[in-house]
Each structure stands twice: as structure tokens, then as C-alpha cells.
């Protein structure tokens, strides 16, 4: 039900108290690409949330890992939940920035028993790809330190709307919450004195120009781990990720860029294909 608010109207609402979240083992399929006694590396599918959070209490990657590793149940208090897509060493935001659902992660400094399995870095709900998980406190400590020191190399690949003006480069532009849209971040060039605007650096390289320049396969290497870093930097470069409605990679933009490169007899197929874009075209390809 919608209602136009007018001067003098009073709006009242009741906000339910958040209940503590419990990460219960669940028989959720997980794709393990490497495992030893100390760590495991999983290939997270798109649309899977990493950890239980308000709006996503079960069916998460951690639920599946707890079932696989038969680890103790973890209770999360709301004030110990952090936003997604950042390293533990960098995470500060307490508000989820997932497009439509709350997809927040846990802090490594939780009150109570240590987090198992230990999440030391994060992927957005819509991002697919590799994520390393610590299976014990020792591994968690060492992996967290490596992420803090930026000695772990992360490689992502994406499909972008259009092609960057230079085929490779380095983007060093701070990132902060978009003042015009609270559900997204923004690259903020120039002097920034706010503690909420943080240093961010990404390297990119065009692997292949596709569709006559309507799209490109781009490799990204992160030097920092900020919320939505690649998505914000891609938008800053004028090449929002295909399927990234929040950051400008809309279906309409995709069609406008790709339609001229497709024979008229196939434009119906193109429109059908683009209509199936349900998430930003971003994949975590490698960790090392």
C-alpha cells in the first residue's frame, strides 16, 4: 500500500527487536576446491550469502561449511555483524550494502568463542568465486594478518558495459558511502577528510574486447578490500559491470551498447539474454 505524505501527516512505526542469529549446520551443497587440516577454499555460487544475517538466516555458505566440518554452532549478536565484501582487517561498516537483502558478515573479534569456520575475507551475495576459510584459530590469525598486510593476491574477472579508455591501469580513488544513495558506495576523488571515506586501489587489465566494443572481459587485482570496491571503481571509470543495476550497469545500458553490434535478426535473442541478467557479472577467479 502506498500513500503520498503531506505536510502535517504523522507517521508511526514499530521496529521489531533483532533476535540473536544462530549459524546452524545445514546440508547446503558447497563446492570445495581445496582443503587441508587448516583451511579450505570454496567456490561460492552467485546469489549465496556468506553468513547468516537479518533476512538471510539460513541456507548460507557458512551453514554448509559447519555441516561439512561438523563445527560448533556460533551465536552472533547484532552489534558484532559487519558488512560484506571487505577483509576482516579493513571492515568497519555496520550496515549491509547488499542490493536487496541484508548480507552482513561477522567480525573476527567477536565476543565469545572464536568464529568457525573463520571468515577472513568476503564476497558480495551476487559475486561468484573463490573464498578461503580458516578451520582453526591459528589459521584465522595468520590469514587475517596476510590480508591486513595485503600479501594475499586476489584476481577477479568481470564483464563491463563498454571498454575503458585505457586498456590497463591503476585506480587509486577513495571509496565512501554514496551520499545520494545509501545502498551503494562511491569513488570519491580529491581530498577526503571523513573517516568514512577510505583509501582504495585497484589494478585492471582488459583481457578481451567483446561485441565490437560494447563489452569487455576485464581482470581486476585488488590492493585493498573495500565494500563494493570493484563495482565502485568500474562505475568511476565509466564501465559499470554488466548486470549491476545499483551501479549503473542496467539492462537498458547493455542493450544500447550491444544492440548495434548484433544483426537485426538476432536482436530479439539479445533482449532475451540481457533480461536474464540477475547480478553483477563478477567472479573471484584466483587467490594466492
UniProtKB/TrEMBL annotation:
Residues 38-234 form the Pseudouridine synthase RsuA/RluA-like domain. InterPro entries: PsdUridine_synth_cat_dom_sf (IPR020103), PsdUridine_synth_RluA-like_CS (IPR006224), PsdUridine_synth_RsuA/RluA (IPR006145), RluA_PseudoU_synthase (IPR050188). SUPFAM superfamilies: Pseudouridine synthase. It catalyses: a uridine in RNA = a pseudouridine in RNA. One of its GO terms (molecular function) is pseudouridine synthase activity. Transmembrane segments: none annotated. Pfam families: PseudoU_synth_2 (PF00849). CDD domains: PseudoU_synth_RluA_like. One of its GO terms (biological process) is enzyme-directed rRNA pseudouridine synthesis. It comes from the Eukaryota. Belongs to the pseudouridine synthase RluA family. This is Pseudouridine synthase.
Amino acid at each position: 500500500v502506498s500513500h503520498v505524505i503531506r505536510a502535517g501527516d504523522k507517521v508511526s512505526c514499530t521496529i521489531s527487536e533483532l533476535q540473536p542469529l544462530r549459524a546452524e549446520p545445514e546440508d547446503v551443497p558447497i563446492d570445495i576446491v581445496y582443503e587441508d587440516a587448516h583451511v579450505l577454499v570454496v567456490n561460492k555460487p552467485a546469489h549465496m550469502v556468506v553468513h547468516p544475517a537479518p533476512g538471510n538466516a539460513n541456507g548460507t555458505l557458512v551453514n554448509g561449511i559447519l555441516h561439512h566440518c561438523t563445527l560448533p554452532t556460533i551465536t552472533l549478536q547484532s552489534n558484532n555483524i559487519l558488512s560484506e565484501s571487505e577483509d576482516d582487517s579493513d571492515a568497519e561498516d555496520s550496515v549491509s550494502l547488499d542490493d536487496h537483502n541484508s548480507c552482513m558478515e561477522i567480525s573476527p573479534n567477536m565476543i565469545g568463542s572464536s568464529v568457525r569456520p573463520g571468515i577472513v575475507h568476503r564476497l558480495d551475495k551476487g559475486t561468484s568465486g573463490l573464498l578461503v576459510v580458516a578451520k582453526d584459530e591459528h589459521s584465522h590469525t595468520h590469514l587475517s594478518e596476510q590480508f591486513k598486510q595485503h600479501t594475499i593476491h586476489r584476481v577477479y574477472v568481470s564483464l563491463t558495459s563498454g571498454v575503458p579508455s585505457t586498456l590497463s591501469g591503476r585506480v587509486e580513488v577513495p571509496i565512501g558511502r554514496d551520499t545520494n544513495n545509501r545502498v551503494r558506495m562511491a569513488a570519491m576523488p580529491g581530498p577526503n577528510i571523513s573517516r568514512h571515506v577510505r583509501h582504495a586501489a585497484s589494478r585492471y587489465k582488459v583481457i578481451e574486447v567483446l561485441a565490437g566494443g560494447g563489452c569487455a572481459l576485464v581482470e581486476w587485482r585488488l590492493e585493498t578490500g573495500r565494500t563494493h570496491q570493484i563495482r565502485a571503481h568500474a562505475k568511476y571509470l565509466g564501465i559499470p559491470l554488466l548486470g549491476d543495476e545499483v551501479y549503473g550497469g542496467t539492462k537498458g545500458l547493455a542493450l544500447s551498447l550491444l544492440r548495434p553490434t548484433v544483426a537485426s535478426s538476432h536482436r530479439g535473442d539479445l533482449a532475451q539474454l540481457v533480461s536474464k541478467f540477475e547480478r553483477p557479472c563478477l567472479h573471484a577467479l584466483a587467490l594466492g
